[in-house]
Amino acid sequence: MSGETLQVYFLGTAGALPTPHRNPSCIMVRRGSDTLIFDCGEGAQQQMMRARTGFGINAVFITHWHADHFLGIFGLIHTLSFNGRTAPLTIYGPEWVHEFVQTIRHVGRFNLNFPIESVELADGSFVRFDGYTVTAFAVSHGITALGYVFEEDARPGRFDRETAIALGVAPGPLFGRLQRGETIPVELEGRQGVVRPSDVMGPPRPGRKIVITGDTRPVPARIATVAQDADLLIHDATYDDAEKDRAAEFYHATAGQAGEAAAAAGALTLALIHVSSRYTDADSHINDAKKNFSGRVIAPQDLDMVEVSFRQ
Ligand SMILES: [Zn+2]
Ligand SMILES: [Zn+2]
User: Fold this and answer.
1) C-alpha 143 to ligand 2 mean position (Å)
2) Could you say which ligand is closest to the alpha carbon of residue 141?
3) What mean pLDDT do residues 24-38 have?
4) Cα of 186 to ligand 1 centre, how many Å?
5) Euclidean distance between CA atoms 257 and 176, whole angstroms
6) Residue 241 annotated in active site
7) How many angstroms does the Cα of residue 15 sit away from the middle of ligand 2?
8) Residue burial 262-288, b: 16+ Cβ < 10 Å; e: rest
9) Which of 34, 39, 68, 229 is the catalytic position?
10) Mean pLDDT confidence for 27-54
11) Looking at the whole model, is its pTM more than 0.70?
12) How far apart are CA 142 and CA 117, in angstroms?
């Protein structure tokens, strides 16, 4: 089955402070022609230029109101307006999102040519899109902070062409009707009967799932539930395991703790982000995560793109 393309661009992977090689937080998820961004750190718009993603953003989700997660919005909306955008843009986020959007309207002399809307989300809030849902979940970061689950709708089960033919369904448009859930009258060996979708379709297959924790202390029990069977878990890994105490003090996670969360969730791939500027590489992060998680572990560089494919 082909389905929509699903790509994740790591536009900013730095923790708290940018470095010459890492920008503050911004993750872009593109599904088909839809583009969502999760956090919008300073300089995010230039990262979009460098990654050649364009600016066709449908919605912005903010995990929490620390400056490294939202300062890029001001520059981005200025550019969107300058480029002639007229479509409304919705900014979703935890409490204070309305005040933030009010602030945007009052900062400087913005002449925005498109409306900006604000929607406050809390633990369990969800937003429906065409073919997928984004659901917020509470994490532990000292201030109100949310993670997000991006999950596609389940896909229909596999269509068993041979069985359909054996039951007397002529190949052609009837196949499509069965796949859309219709029961089809058939005549087989002179007898009237019907073929139901359940006769020729396998069980529904899950869509793809991406989970973004944002900044958080380890919440493995929580992640085990909301991120169960995630194709891609993008987890706070500000520190390596040598800095466990510091991580707890500043409400962040270590790479090893991110690995524990990924194992608890049964995730396929773990991406370690929000890497502190104290590290010149993420080798120790990868090693620490792998101690606790046997799946694939990556520590994306800025502008890296990961394609998420269907499991089956
Ligand atoms: Zn941060
Ligand atoms: Zn933070």
Assistant:
1) 8
2) 2
3) 97
4) 61
5) 47
6) no
7) 8
8) bbbbebbbbbbbbbbeebeebebbbeb
9) 68
10) 97
11) yes
12) 26
